[in-house]
Amino acid sequence: MKEQDDFSKDSLEELMGKLEQVMQVLENRETTLEDSFHAYEQGMKYLKACHEKIDMVEKRMLVINENGGYDEF
Q1: Residue 20: which of 49, 1, 43, 54 has the closest Cα?
Q2: What are the φ/ψ torsions at residue 13 (nearest 5 degrees)?
Q3: Greater confidence, 56 or 18?
Q4: Contact 22, 37 (CB under 8 A)
Q5: Is the terminal CB of the chain with fewer CB neighbours within 10 Å at N or C?
Q6: Burial class (CB in 10 A: 0-12, 13-18, 19+), 15
């Protein structure tokens, strides 16, 4: 069984930087088809990790309620 990637310590900015690197590999005409597939697969993992981090932030956001208190968004 393949070990899962753990991106929990990476910031959203770091993951976006990794996605940018993947895009550069995919846009390079010298990249082999096999390397393109690998880069695409890696990019999808980074994208999933970005979505998870954004979802986590959205769930933690707070909104001021009418009583001046805070409610989760």
Answers
A1: 43
A2: -65, -40
A3: 18
A4: no
A5: N
A6: buried
For range 58-69, the mean pLDDT: 71
Residue of 59 and 21 predicted with greater confidence:
21
Residue 70 structure tokens: 């805070």
Work out the burial of residue 42: count CB atoms within 10 Å of its CB; fewer than 13 is exposed, 13-18 middle, 19 or more buried.
Answer: middle
Q: Looking up tokens 């001046």, which residue turns up?
A: 68
Q: Give Dmax (Cα) for the chain.
A: 61
Q: How many CB atoms lie within 10 A of CB 49?
A: 20
Q: Could you tell me which of 59, 25, 56, 62 has the C-alpha nearest to residue 40?
A: 25
- Look-up of token digits 């968004």: 73
Q: In 3-state terms, what secondary structure has residue 24? A: helix
